[in-house]
Design a protein that fits this description.
Helices cover about 55% and strands about 5% of the residues. It is α/β, with parallel strands linked by helices and about 450 residues long. Helix 8 runs antiparallel to helix 11.
Amino acid sequence: MSGHSHAPPPSPAPPSASSPATTLGYALFATRWLQAPLYFGLVAAQGVYVYKFFYELWNLILRCVTGQANETYVMLAVLKLVDVVMIANLLIMVIVGGYETFVSRIGLQGHRDQPEWLSHVNSNVLKVKLATAIVGISSVHLLQMFVDVHHTSHHSLLWGTVIHMAFIASAAILAYMSGPMADRSDRSHRGHAQGPVAPVASSAPVPPASLVSSVSPVSSVPAEFLLTAPAPVSAPVPVPVQAASSPYDSYASCDSYEAGAEARIRDACFPDRKLLEEFDEEHPRVFDREAVARLGKLDFVAARRNVVFVGRPGTGKTHLAVGLGVRACQTGHQVLFATAAQWAARLAGARTDGRLTDELAALDAHALLIVDEVGYTPFDTDTAHLFFQLVAHRYERASLIVTSDRPPGRWDEIFGGAAPAMVDRLAHHAEIVRLEGDSYRMRRATSAWAE
């Protein structure tokens, strides 16, 4: 089959661990752990700053109580406290981000307090954040000089301003240089991952309707996910139009861009048409609106990152997943939606027919796959392995949206022994959004009964 020629090449067998080159490489790689004590030393330094903060705060309180603090002293003391906090923030950024980047990954996937910046930290991001933090600290120091200008020499003010401007210039240059480097890396990854897409789409198309024919109809999605009345098909979402030359857009020959978008929405096999604008943001008790707004820009699709919606049934996970999928269709991406059970049946059928590799390669034509209802049914070992192959194949290649009733840290209850490796790849470049609250469907049903 032509699909074989476009499947990703098998990974070369690793060299024997007994070879001198391999042993030397492993030894050199293991030296990264020499940095671990350095980060624990920074933890101790952070403890020193905690002590300094409360020492300065205590002195400020004592002077205010005894009437020895004038307005200038209070302002300088508060600025000194802010300075200590900003340096502590810089320390924690270096400790956590540096350890994660250069020593070993920290297993925070699914943790509700995971910092937003940690999910996409790398050396470029870390350097820019450090530079901006240094600029902030320098700003506080310079402000302290101006507040206490009567006791600060003109020479100190001049050089303080010059140094601060040098920090600003260096941070701007670093941010500018990091942008092109990230773009080149992104284009390199995209060229590697998407190179075979066009031949696959032309020689071995996979009509989304095959998903319906091989598994149960998508209309079997539980009613608890149909959170609001469906929007009229003619109602467009006001999103920026993406160029028709997108590698995922196979509808450039349509009479209009809108017709192509409607075709992509139809072929995505959504259980119903849901828009992000229709989501009832007041319903969930816990809901990260900023994260969803950020996801609505669809940058995660271009960056080949993943999204995991976690929450009880009826909290709106499927609505948000479909809303993002519809918006992706309208911006030129091909999307495919199915429940976890339907994906399991599709992949199992491909494996039975001996074309699992071709199936995974053909799915590369879709910028976004949505896997709904993970956790409602536990899977046997063979099926769990199929899901691992799907996640591993799309790792840093294309995006996944997954909805589940439990966080990834508990997916061993669903996928057994395959869960750790699957979560490692899925959550490495993922935005995890938690929704907590009562079932929207049950709330509406309760209101109807009360009437």
